[in-house]
From TrEMBL:
<dbReference type="GO" id="GO:0015926">
    <property type="term" value="F:glucosidase activity"/>
</dbReference>
<dbReference type="InterPro" id="IPR017853">
    <property type="entry name" value="GH"/>
</dbReference>
<dbReference type="GO" id="GO:0045490">
    <property type="term" value="P:pectin catabolic process"/>
</dbReference>
<keyword id="KW-0378">Hydrolase</keyword>
<dbReference type="Pfam" id="PF07745">
    <property type="entry name" value="Glyco_hydro_53"/>
</dbReference>
<protein>
    <recommendedName>
        <fullName>Arabinogalactan endo-beta-1,4-galactanase</fullName>
        <ecNumber>3.2.1.89</ecNumber>
    </recommendedName>
</protein>
<keyword id="KW-0326">Glycosidase</keyword>
<keyword id="KW-0732">Signal</keyword>
<dbReference type="GO" id="GO:0031218">
    <property type="term" value="F:arabinogalactan endo-1,4-beta-galactosidase activity"/>
</dbReference>
<feature type="signal peptide">
    <location>
        <begin position="1"/>
        <end position="19"/>
    </location>
</feature>
<comment type="similarity">
    <text>Belongs to the glycosyl hydrolase 53 family.</text>
</comment>
<dbReference type="InterPro" id="IPR011683">
    <property type="entry name" value="Glyco_hydro_53"/>
</dbReference>
């Protein structure tokens, strides 16, 4: 359903004057203190879920704006994905993303913008080139120019709306070479891959300089074990101008269980002298399915004997938080905590494939897991 968006612009500094958390604390002269740890939520699905009838309740059962709800719990960062021209959906396009960023900034939260450089999901198994760029797939220089211009123009448009993100992710789960068609080609053609990724990085640096606003660059790999070889190959091939290592960490798909994952995180930080954030993780609070869409998180998602309960979900997040900090990392983002079951459909089925791993139960009430964000008040 097409939506007419009314985006209310609020000054970020006004919204960020709340000094209750390290996320948005201010000094006496009004300058903002740096964030010591990012407590994040990927809320890319929220606008769609709300259009599908979803309502969100806080831990007391009171219906509340979901962005306000996360902010009040302690979240200080919202991640949002951007697809190039997703003709199959009205969401995750520029207008949808601008609405998400506006809502996040209205609550004083920072924003991580995730460029997929695709018209659909980009992940370790698929890096499908946008249809509009397909004719240039074998012309690396022309493709690099398209990527640069798209990145720059998108950020410039956001800047004109006072919606520049604080962190930009150049690609999503880019284990394989970006901008391909169909089945991924291995091994990675690093001459092509490094050229394209560096063009994206250059665009972020250029808009940051032109707008006189700091914007960090993040490169995102799925699973820590893949980060070990990928960043070695990337830096050997001239990809060095980035600020953050972003990782997806789901124990069900990783070689490392929770008790082991601190080692690769620390290795990445110490080897490359970059900041590190887990930008995707989640944990089930039940194995009961709320709808006909098969849930992705099953029994293999469990780790460290942590059960699939609301308390188990909270325990997982608290333990992972401690591990990240002990390794020297600086952030944890929960992936799609608000992708609850509705009457709408995905590409595959009606409902949500994540309803047992969100931070809301089947009645839309926040689970115990959402109180993980309360740690922001004390750190």
């Amino acid at each position: 359903m097409l939506r007419k968006l009314q985006i209310t612009m609020l000054l970020v500094l006004t919204a960020s004057c709340n000094s209750d958390t390290n996320a948005n604390s201010s000094t006496a002269n009004g300058t903002e203190n740096p964030i010591s740890f990012y407590f994040g939520a990927d809320l890319s699905y929220v606008n769609e879920m709300e259009d599908c009838g979803a309502i969100y309740k806080n831990t007391m059962g009171t219906v509340e704006d979901v962005y306000k709800l996360f902010k009040e719990e302690g979240a200080n960062l919202v991640r949002v994905r951007l697809w190039h021209n997703p003709t199959w959906t009205n969401y995750s396009n520029y207008d949808d993303v601008a609405q998400t960023i506006s809502r996040a900034k209205a609550q004083g939260m920072k924003v991580l913008l995730d460029f997929h450089y695709s018209d659909t999901w980009a992940d370790p198994d698929k890096q499908e080139i946008p249809a509009a760029w397909a004719n240039e797939i074998n012309n690396t220089e022309a493709l690099g120019n398209l990527l640069y211009n798209y990145t720059y123009e998108t950020l410039n448009n956001l800047s004109n709306a006072n919606l520049l993100p604080e962190i930009v992710q150049v690609g999503n789960e880019i284990n394989g070479m970006i901008l391909q068609q169909g089945e991924l080609v291995w091994p990675i053609d690093w001459e092509r891959n490094s050229y394209l990724l560096n063009k994206g990085i250059e665009a972020v640096r250029a808009i940051s300089e032109d707008k006189n606003k700091p914007i960090d660059v993040m490169l995102h790999i799925a699973q820590p074990e893949n980060g070990l070889w990928w960043f070695e190959q990337a830096t050997d091939n001239g990809i060095t101008d980035f600020d953050w290592i972003g990782l997806s960490y789901y124990p069900t798909w990783s070689d490392y269980d929770l008790s082991e994952v601190q080692t690769p995180l620390a290795t990445l930080i110490n080897t490359y002298n970059k900041r590190l954030m887990i930008v995707e993780t989640a944990y089930p609070f039940t194995f009961t399915n709320a709808d006909t869409a098969n849930n992705i998180m099953g029994p293999t998602a469990l780790t460290n004997n942590i059960p699939a309960t609301q308390q188990g979900q909270l325990d997982y997040l608290n333990q992972l938080h401690t591990i990240i900090k002990n390794a020297g990392g600086e952030g944890l983002i929960y992936w799609e905590p608000a992708w609850i079951s509705t009457s709408c459909s995905t590409l595959w089925a009606q409902g949500s494939h994540w309803d047992n791993a969100t931070l809301f139960d089947n009645d839309g009430k926040a689970t115990l897991g959402i109180t993980y964000y309360n740690r922001a008040f004390n750190e």
